[in-house]
Amino acid sequence: MKRALISVYDKRGVVQLARELVSLGWEIISTGGTGKILRNEDIPFRDIKEITNFPEILDGRVKTLHPHIHGGILYKRDEEEHKRILKKLDIGSIDLVVNNLYPFEDTIKKEGISHEEVIENIDIGGPAMIRAAAKNYKYITVVIDPSDYGRVLKELRTRGETSLDLRRELARKVFQYTAYYDSLIANYFNCLNNVEFPDIITIPFKDKQELRYGENPHQKAAFYKEYNNLDGTIAAAIQLHGKELSFNNINDGNGALEILKEFDEPTVVAVKHANPCGIGSGKDLLEAYVKAYECDKISIFGGIIAVNRIVDEEVAKRINEIFIEIVMAPDYTQKALEVLATKKNIRILKVPNIMKNDYASYDIKKVLGGVLIQQRNRDLLGQELKVVTKRKPTEKEMEDLIFGWKAVKGVKSNGVLLAKDKATIGIGGGEVNRVWAVKAAIERAGDKAKGSVLASDGFFPFKDSVEALAKAGVTAIIQPGGSLRDQESIEEADKNGMVMIFTGMRHFKH
């Protein structure tokens, strides 16, 4: 008689599985909670204590960790010495293991959870048992996912046994599952011990989303989500309209959200190819949208828009005047949704808690041969702002300087931008030379550059950028400072009656 050991935390479908196994002539072995359900359903089974001749002990911490269980799972069916040992020790074969683990992931997500409860939800016997079964997949079937019950039963009905291909596939799922499970535990202890960069890093991701392709059509791609609270991220977005998101949509959308989180007042961020092409803040969302749009009316076409207020009908109508790939917002009025949805190809995303920004996650970049890992760039300013020129900023200049400094954090280096009236008017990013970035921003701003301020993500190595800005009519500059030639830039600013502020903090973005 074939025997199945069934001990599951997630009990979906377990009654139907056990009932059909019995009908196929299998004997069921079970434990505590699962056994209670089977007993209530009048499904015959043997309690694990009958197999081990040993009671569950230590509040259930030890029940399946026993030679009569692991011997029955791990022996090689085609090796005579293994069979002789099992017969001598009166250990019966276990041919199917159905198990899933204590809900460690759900436990650590609970508010106010105690460390003691977390520890008790670290499964020991379960991982040992399913790993043993997966190791011996040549002979034994292991199932951890209720969605696989049907596949197993279908083969047992038609073949009398499972195929090697199915057993190998189910074993693969086990090892991925236990690796993920252990990575959650490792990360919990890293946080508990304030270890930011452990000697060995394991970062759990889940819920694979197949993408049509990567950055280019010839590249395959997928999107995996983090296990923790995803509010305020594109991973948590609820898609209300439009076709599925692409690799570039997700990457650009994340860039837009990262920038948006810097601003408290009504703000619109427009992004194209991972770089902002317009950022505006205003008394309401409509004013903010107009400012973002006016920065670069060409580049915003086919771009991504992220906003931090509810989109109303008026704003939706303005957005619909051009082609936009994605709109991301905390919510939409019904009228706004109706307006936006008239465009077939626009993707409308609702992002819960869009301004959440207290993530403890890493910023990760894959390189050939390894990964670069750093903290997220959550800080904005150094210890103090330092006015290094003779002239001090006006209140209006200071307002625009801070706006520009927040905005330039999201521009690829070398990155600069011109700002006026809490709106970007010219952006220069991704240049290998800072003066080129400055000249690009001035050119894009045109006549609007006069009376604007400039924010630069890094210091000015030479005074040439200040000369170009003064000629364009820019009145104030905010930059990190720290160049050996800082004094030359300061003197050039003084010569032209400009303000220069050092932040003591740079914001390179690569």
Automatic annotation (TrEMBL):
Domain of life the protein comes from: Bacteria
EC number in record: 2.1.2.3, 3.5.4.10
Catalysed reactions, as listed in the record: IMP + H2O = 5-formamido-1-(5-phospho-D-ribosyl)imidazole-4-carboxamide; (6R)-10-formyltetrahydrofolate + 5-amino-1-(5-phospho-beta-D-ribosyl)imidazole-4-carboxamide = 5-formamido-1-(5-phospho-D-ribosyl)imidazole-4-carboxamide + (6S)-5,6,7,8-tetrahydrofolate
Record key words, sorted: Hydrolase, Multifunctional enzyme, Purine biosynthesis, Transferase
Pfam families reported for this sequence: AICARFT_IMPCHas (PF01808), MGS (PF02142)
BP-aspect Gene Ontology terms: 'de novo' IMP biosynthetic process
InterPro entries for the chain: AICAR_Tfase_dup_dom_sf, Cytidine_deaminase-like, MGS-like_dom, MGS-like_dom_sf, PurH-like
GO CC terms, sorted: cytosol
Pathway(s) where this gene product acts: Purine metabolism; IMP biosynthesis via de novo pathway; 5-formamido-1-(5-phospho-D-ribosyl)imidazole-4-carboxamide from 5-amino-1-(5-phospho-D-ribosyl)imidazole-4-carboxamide (10-formyl THF route): step 1/1; Purine metabolism; IMP biosynthesis via de novo pathway; IMP from 5-formamido-1-(5-phospho-D-ribosyl)imidazole-4-carboxamide: step 1/1
Oxidoreductase listed as a keyword: no
Keyword Hydrolase: yes
Molecular function per GO: IMP cyclohydrolase activity; phosphoribosylaminoimidazolecarboxamide formyltransferase activity
Domain named MGS-like: residues: 1-144
PANTHER family documented for this protein: BIFUNCTIONAL PURINE BIOSYNTHESIS PROTEIN ATIC, BIFUNCTIONAL PURINE BIOSYNTHESIS PROTEIN PURH
Swiss-Prot/TrEMBL domain comment: The IMP cyclohydrolase activity resides in the N-terminal region.
HAMAP family documented for this protein: PurH
Family: Belongs to the PurH family.
UniProt protein name: Bifunctional purine biosynthesis protein PurH
Gene transcribed to yield this protein: purH
